[in-house]
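check this one:
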Amino acid sequence: MRRTPEGHGTGDVRVPRLVGLMAVDARESARARGLVVDAPGRPDFPHTVVDYVVRQYPQPGTPVPRHSVVHVWLDFGEGGGGVREPRGPLPPPGGPRRELEEPGAGVPLVVLSSP
């Protein structure tokens, strides 16, 4: 096999970055470079669409022979980013509290504190 100046065979391709892509897009991106994608432990992977790639091996940019397998690990939904809104339970009541006077009432400020 002829070698390129970088020392890699001419049949080598670089692994694309698949992390962050939906499964369907990861398969298409790899296929376009002549690579095959597999998800260990996921027999339904050929039909998986909306799960996101959270890890891959080999790493992006690694030169590999054409038709090599790139292994990916998936997470459902938003890429494993977690919940982005506050959830209950709310913090317990307590700590110092202040009650301000009504405007024009002439009543001094009352400070309450919790036991």
Summary: The longest helix spans residues 23-32. Residues 1-7 have pLDDT under 50 and may be disordered.
